[in-house]
Amino acid sequence: MQAHWEEAPSLPQEQEESLADSLSAFSEFGLQLLRQLRDYFPATNSTAVHRLELLLKCLGKLQLFQPSFEICPFESELNMDIAAALKRGNREWYDRILNDKSPREQPGPQRLPGLVVLADAVYDDLQFCYSVYASLFHSILNVDVFTLTFRQLERLVAEEAWVLTEELSPKMTLEVASGLFELYLTLADLQRFWDSIPGRDSRSLALAGIHAPFLPAVKLWFQVLRDQAKWRLQGAVDMDTLEPVDASSRHSSSAATAGLCLSHIQELWVRLAWPDPAQAQGLGTQLGQDVCEATLFYTELLRKKVDTQPGAAGEAVSEALCVVLNNVELVRKAAGQALKGLAWPEGATGPEGVLPRPLLSCTQALDDDLQREAHTVTAHLTSKMVGDIRKYVQHISLSPDSIQNDEAVAPLMKYLDEKLALLNASLVKGNLSRVLEALWELLLQAILQALGANRDVSADFYSRFHFTLEALVSFFHAEGQGLPLESLRDGSYKRLKEELRLHKCSTRECIEQFYLDKLKQRTLEQNRFGRLSVRCHYEAAEQRLAVEVLHAADLLPLDANGLSDPFVIVELGPPHLFPLVRSQRTQVKTRTLHPVYDELFYFSVPAEACRRRAACVLFTVMDHDWLSTNDFAGEAALGLGGVTGVARPQ
């Protein structure tokens, strides 16, 4: 037709009228089809969509004939007719669903479920309109079908929502709150869908501000959500056998359910997208507290479950306890992730990536609680090994000196190797480290107890335990695959190492250690016993040590009058280094806490003795009492190794 029209653009009037009638009838038929767009051309049917494309092209061709007709077949612009047909079709489709699902004559509580269905249908329809119809109408007829449809349907849904929320507000129940929450989620999705399209602003929409009447329902529904989560967790733990769900997992089925529950809460919060920052902070904080409560509820259920597990008490390494420990770790991570996802987008004053303070407090408190729970389960797990470990440590202590150290330690190492192989196969890495730390502390305490129970034994006894300790350090470090050396050689290890070292020492070495400990005195800033000023040097020509006691300050008041009668005893130590040297003392200064002495004392000693390990001058401040024994007021030590004339020329 187009080709013939271009060859003979003018027709006799009768033919032109006939053609105009035909084209007009065809356009009316096409517009009638567009009014029922969803029925005749469903977006899910590719064949129907292709037919729609052909129809739109035909309607587009009709516009080529319109300027040449003396008798116009179209009452108005075709694009305007198409827009009017689409609007009419939208309204008819909307009213059909509204009357079917949520008739206005019904009471509000009965209408609510139907309105939720209607809102969902509108959202799905707009999705199809944007993804399928919009490109066809725009490319062929230059008609913005999506904007036309969205604004019309959004306004209609908003009108129903405003009216219904006003009617239901005084009748708020848990059931109503659940329905309103579901309705709001769909309305929020509608708004976000509009925002996601470049160049569009939701502030002009009829749904702008629709969140306000839904706030009471959302708060009430959060209670429903919390109770539903607890109910799901209770059911999951009841059905849980505390066995790994499959060969590749080390947690049980209830942990997976708990993780899904927490993830679901986070997803709902993202969908909620509450626009008011102040209200969002309150809602987010409440939801965060509910997440923490549900998580702790789950761990409590787990603990009760494992306590009732048959056969758990007789096993050295309980698989059920390992699974529980893995479950706690999995839920700890899931809860932390969920709480991070509850951060409200606006109104938080902290830097980007930092949680708002209320959520940060929730996160830290929950992490602390779950860490304590993990330590409790760990202690329960390792407590089953206490008896065996003590038995093997006792075997080491009772082994005769004729047996080699590695033979004496072998049973303990074999036992640990077997149990840690089981733990390695049953625990995730973080929990394995936690159990290794607890087991390490348990071993150290068992060795300390063995040392305390054995007195007056040979030096070989302590050498054997020193060998045992170093062998255990190497075993638990596992060439960098186990615990770090810094943590292994800290805490109880230092105490045990020092005790073993002292037991290997001679009597004189122990005495020297006693004086070395005295040299580790507090700094002046940390000392509440006062200060003593002295001057000390060695006179090589006379081979004597000169010690001058100058004065003291801020001594302790030890008399009833709030003062003291202080004097200072000066002596050299250790005694075996200076066997012929006697102690000397200053005069007594009465009724003062700040005595001035200015007394010089000489000790005839060789310089070599002053350079020996632990050689020192010991100053003891005493309070003189006339009718009873003198009172100790404090002491200080000065190492002789750094004194002028001893360490270097005078």
From TrEMBL:
SUPFAM superfamilies in alphabetical order: C2 domain (Calcium/lipid-binding domain, CaLB)
CDD domains named among the record's database cross-references: C2B_Munc13-like (cd04009)
Domain MHD2: from-to ranges: 406-514
Domain of life: Eukaryota
Alphabetical GO biological process terms: exocytosis
UniProt-listed PROSITE patterns: C2 (PS50004), MHD1 (PS51258), MHD2 (PS51259)
Main localization of the protein described in the UniProt heading: cytoplasm
Location within or outside the cell: Cytoplasm; Late endosome; Recycling endosome
Membrane-spanning residues: none
GO cellular component terms, A-Z: late endosome; recycling endosome
Domain C2 span(s) in chain numbering: 528-650
Location of the MHD1 domain: 181-302
Family named by the database record: Belongs to the unc-13 family.
Protein name: BAI1 associated protein 3
Protein species of origin: Homo sapiens (Human)
The encoding gene: BAIAP3
